[in-house]
Amino acid sequence: xxxxxxxxxxxxxxxxxxxxxxxxxxxxxxxxxxxxxxxxxxxxxxxxxxxxxxxxxxxxxxxxxxxxxxxxxxxxxxxxxxxxxxxxxxxxxxxxxxxxxxxxxxxxxxxxxxxxxxxxxxxxxxxxxxxxxxxxxxxxxxxxxxxxxxxxxxxxxxxxxxxxxxxxxxxxxxxxxxxxxxxxxxxxxxxxxxxxxxxxxxxxxxxxxxxxxxxxxxxxxxxxxxxxxxxxxxxxxxxxxxxxxxxxxxxx
Length: 252
Prior knowledge:
Layout: H1 2-21, E1 27-33, E2 42-43, E3 49-50, H2 52-64, E4 66-72, H3 78-83, E5 89-95, H4 98-101, E6 105-106, E7 111-120, H5 129-132, E8 136-140, H6 144-153, E9 158-162, H7 165-173, E10 179-183, H8 184-193, E11 197-214, H9 219-234, H10 237-245
Helix pairs in contact: 2-9, 2-10
């Protein structure tokens, strides 16, 4: 009987040691992006998500030692999807606004954005109320660009909003709008591929900070992502990703 007790005790010790030695399963963080906002998030020819936001999301998960799953979600439904529990965070170049903060929480910013008008070359356009009076100006729906137009120009221009930034560009190219107000870096990317168009007017600084959106109750994940943003800035990972897409630091 005594021998049996020793055998059982030894077996339990071996099992306990095995459990302690077993590697912990990596946490999975489910991330949503738009997938239609180059160069920040888009799909390549094979349908794979790529872009600055995707690289940043993967770097943050590596820093946190967590596994990432990244899915595409239409912009109009991206916050409702987060609140419904379809994913845990949004990494989609989302501006931190007071209106959005009523519904979701944000990490520290991971870059700063400016707004700018884009129009066809050779068509003089003054981007003030008088110069834009009667013009048709496009913007992506539910963005700070659309909000800025509503706030500053609604009495002088016809505002046309779109479900994606790509749709806004297509209408400008087809001559169905006189200009588009957009984030400066996607605008720069589009102009580089469409040489007949250019920026008009100066950049508009509305102190537009870009962050990662999470549910308000997910405080621990928000804090870990904020710490990871600071860490990849400090260790050079952010700089390498930034240089892949831009010749200057967009973090500012």
